[in-house]
Amino acid sequence: MQQEIPMLGTKETALLRDDYPSIEYLEAGNTASWLQERQDQLLVRAKDERNGMNLAKFITLATAATGAVCYATSPLAPIGAVVAGVGYLWSIVQDLNDTHQFAPIPFIRGDFFSFLSAMGDSVARAEYFANKNELADLMLHLEPMSKYEFAMLKQSSHVVCEYLSAVEPGKRFYAYRWLLDWFIQLRGQFPTREQLSGHLAQVTIDPRVNYQQVTVIQEAIQPQNLGIPQARFAQLPNHAVGARFEEERGHNAKSFGEISPMPTAPMQSASSPSVNTEISTYTTKPQVQYDLIGHIAKKVTNMLWVGVPGSGKGITISNAIDAIKRLHPGIHIFYIDPKGDEKEIGYFKGRVDTFKRAKILEMSPVEAVKWVKECFTEFQNISGSKLIILDEGTAVCSKFKNTKGEIGWLKDKIISYCSCGDSSGWHFWIVVQNPHTDDLGISGGLRSQLTSVALVHPDNVPAYNAMIATQLIPSDRKITSTQVMEIAERSPVGRAVYYGGINQWFPMPLLKNFSGYDRDTKKFVNSAPSDQHSSHVETNSSIDTPKTQAQQMLALLEKTTANSIDEFIQNELKLDGVPPDLIRLGIERLLQDSPIKYKFDGGNSNHN
Questions:
Q1: How far apart are CA 176 and CA 162, in angstroms?
Q2: Beta partners for 335?
Q3: Residue 356 and residue 373: Cα distance in Å, rounded?
Q4: Which domain holds residue 473?
Q5: Residue 572 within a domain
Q6: Is 52 a member of any domain?
Q7: What's the CA dihedral at 558, 563, 567, 573 to 10 degrees?
Q8: Comparing C-alpha atoms, which of 140, 415, 469, 200 is closest to residue 302?
Q9: How far is 165 from 175, CA to CA, in rounded Å?
């Protein structure tokens, strides 16, 4: 007697599997159709949930209002109003729990307080409705797992299809769930195909799949030959050649007094001119690269730069201000660098007129606020056309928020510079890592006065998802993360940039690295900074000569693993007969303006 095999599934998991489109179609190879069906299923479900929630609010609110108005006509009216009011409150609480948004008015989605604040300003109201994302609102009405699943299918359905097409039948639904779990954990990214294949090698086929139906579906979708014969093609004769042949044929007939049969070879008159054939071969036109730096430098405006660390903000801004100084030599550029990174001095040395540096992360909030205020005061005392650039705006805002009563001062300064500075020749740039700039006072109508520049690296997809969740980028340019990565792949530096001046995305061009340090490779590169402009931090530099002793010494200092100059002199130089103090003095002078000075700052503080 054959022993009955127990079922692997449970009642709960059976309901979960029944919630999906027929899994047998997925296992049979209809991957793209199955994914599209699942995406449409979640979309319709979200619409039904939202419509039901809005209808519940409307009915309970209308009933409560009717009962409250008609309380004098019937003793049951107040009771009905109370019951309907409780139902209305319950629907609001349930909606708040599902979507994390307070939306008490039926059919009005989004945060209620943001809606009220936008209704009082025509510019903010137009921007509020223009930036509404219907799909994002619908996703809020799905369960947590379904929200991420819909996002994965909407943005990366083709990627999932490619992954699942390479999986053998019987493991595709498991692979789909596995990819969804990792998509959630990796915040919008997928594991590699090798990792998927390595994991599936340890997984057996699913016994809950009806493989008889899988076979029937596979046979049903096989391409069938209907016996339709292939089309036959014939080449039409050339009109010019045919006309010449008729002319020659008539001439021969007149000469011999009879119509001759068609000759086996065409007869060409000696007096007929030769045909010069013009050959034109189609070639793909090279893609014209947009001149981002030239457009920014042509007319100086207020700007908002957004990008995570390593996205290319420093290189892009340094090239922009270098071009500005060439086109507008009379403008005074005032740069506030709260990070104080020694490796980035080359970005601005020789390009800005005033360069203020400090490491505010090591400063107390009160000390940092005092330093920033002094910088702004110094900038205001400068006459003529000028541009102030505030780097690390997010960190500066944090210091001001942690100092009681100071964040209002910073907001007032930013609003004043953006709103009233242009008429006086004052221009303001702010550089932030986080697109949420409401704490800085940059929101609503004020954001429209700043030209946005957003730099995105493919390794920071979650940062881009946070970026499109704000009003930084207009709704018609909120492309998917997959499209951003495709644009970045066409860039020689692997980055995509959005420029609000033309409201377009395009690949970031290759720009000159004035700092001499490549953050992608964490190595120094040979890049000679421009020295055509004066700067408060600039010092005189000698003329470069190939393979001078100074260059050889700098090369040794760059490669050394020594932690201090003394250790370098003792272990690597070994110059007998030369006083170490004299060597040390020469090295310190050599490192004074070198980008590798930071390597020995910590180990030589006791000699300063």
A1: 11
A2: 355, 389
A3: 12
A4: 292-524
A5: yes
A6: yes
A7: -10
A8: 415
A9: 10
Helix (H) or strand (E) holding 372, with range, is helix 365-380
Q: Identify whether residues 210 and 303 lie together within a single domain.
A: no
- Co-location of 565 and 423 in the same domain: no
pLDDT value of residue 466: 73
Q: How far apart are CA 124 and CA 128, in angstroms?
A: 6
Sign of CA dihedral 540, 544, 549, 550: positive
How many Å apart are CA 181 and CA 167, to the nearest integer? 17
Q: Output the CA–CA distances (angstroms, integers) from residue 502 to 128, 212, 314, 499, 553, in the order listed.
A: 21, 57, 21, 6, 47
Distance of CA 474 to the CA centre of its chain: 13
Residue 574 has, within 13 A of its CA and on its CB side, a CA count of 2
State residue 281's pLDDT score.
Answer: 57
Q: How many residues does the chain have?
A: 608
Number of domains in the chain: 3
The two structure tokens encoding residue 40: 């449409």
Cβ atoms of 133 and 460 closer than 8 Å: no
Q: What is the CA radius of gyration of the chain?
A: 36
Q: What is the pLDDT of residues 104-158, one digit of tens each?
A: 777 766 666 666 666 666 666 666 666 666 666 777 778 878 888 888 888 888 8
The two tokens of residue 64 are 């409560």
CA angle 582, 544, 310 (to 5 degrees): 95
Question: 496-499 and 451-456 as β-strands: parallel, antiparallel, unpaired?
Answer: antiparallel
**How far apart are alpha carbons 474 and 447 in whole angstroms?**
11
455, 312 Cβ separation under 8 angstroms: yes
Cα–Cα distance, 479 to 456 (Å, whole number)? 12
Token digits for 441? 């006072």
Residue 101, Cβ density class (10 Å: 0-12 exposed, 13-18 middle, ≥19 buried): middle
Instruction: Please give the torsion angle defined by the CA atoms of residues 109, 111, 112 and 114, in that order, rounded to the nearest 10 degrees.
Output: -120
Report the candidate in 464, 519, 536, 475 with the shortest Cα–Cα distance to residue 497. 464
Domain identity same for 464 and 319: yes
The enclosing domain of 517 has a CATH number of: 3.40.50.300
Residue 496, H or E segment: strand 496-499
Q: Is residue 69 located within the same domain as residue 191?
A: yes
For residue range 506-528, what is the model confidence (pLDDT) as tens digits? 898 888 888 776 766 666 665 44
Judgement on whether residues 35 and 155 belong to the same structural domain of the protein: yes
Instruction: DSSP letter for 570, please.
Output: I
Question: Does residue 462 share a domain with residue 596?
Answer: no
Q: Is residue 211 part of a domain?
A: yes
Closest CA to 410 of 438, 451, 433, 434: 438
Q: What's the pTM?
A: 0.44
Among candidate residues 220, 250, 272, the one where a domain is terminated: 220
Which of 524, 539, 573 lies at the terminal end of a domain, its last residue? 524
- Cite the beta strand spans of 254-323 per DSSP E: 303-306
Token pair in block for residue 586: 């020469």
| Whether residues 302 and 212 fall in one domain | no
Q: Token pair of 71, please? A: 């309380």
Query: Is 277 a member of any domain?
Result: no
pLDDT of 469-498, one tens digit each? 777 788 788 888 888 888 888 888 888 899
**Residue whose pair of structure tokens reads 């780097």 in the numeric block:** 391
Shared domain for 207 and 335, answered yes or no, is no
Strand ranges, E, within 142-282: none
242's enclosing H/E stretch is helix 239-256
Give the model's confidence band at 536: pLDDT under 50 very low, under 70 low, under 90 confident, else very high: very low
In which residue are the tokens 């995570």 written?
A: 308
Per-residue CA distances from 114 to 97, 294, 418, 435, 440 (Å):
18, 37, 22, 17, 17
